[in-house]
Amino acid sequence: MSDVLTFLQQRNSAPRLTEPAPGPGELREMVRAALRAPDHCWLNPWRFIRIEGERRAAFGEVLEQCLLQRKPDADPAARDKARNAPLRAPLLLVVVARISEHPKVPAVEQRLSAGCAAHGILLAAEALGYAGVWRTGDAAFDPRVFQALGLASGEEITGFLYLGSRAAPAKNLPALEPDDFLSPW
Predict the structure, then answer these.
(1) What digits encode the pLDDT tens for the residues 106-155?
(2) Which helix (H) or strand (E) holds 17?
(3) Which one of 27, 39, 80, 114 has the largest count of C-beta atoms within 10 Å of its C-beta?
């Protein structure tokens, strides 16, 4: 079996991340890999917002304020979780789907393309010796978060990619049997 196939079959998320994060050149290469996502009619229905350094704490304040607007009675633990979420990793990438009207490419295809781009970034991070985890949650669907991030009309968050180095060994995932998911027609 090829090394690439083995690599793809062993990738898994890393919820605990630490320094170092990918540097600017490595991040460009990761995005270059993401740009190879399936993209019917070359719509490029994705873009990426980088949040790092002190901006992570500022974004945490945004997440906490948006939480309070959604749930004014949020308890202190929920507020802390929202405020500290961007600090879980040294680098946060917001994957944005750019949905446009197109006679041949429905919105669902554009969203799936953005999802493939997000997965491409996670794969590229692993290939470069880093790790990541894809998260969403209520903030990913909150129009106030969209506004704070400067999303335009027709844009939405596909996910938050937390990126850095593994803080713990990769977890063992259960082996899945391909035949359980593959059937003839």
Answers:
(1) 999 999 999 999 999 999 999 999 999 999 999 999 999 999 999 999 99
(2) strand 17-18
(3) 114
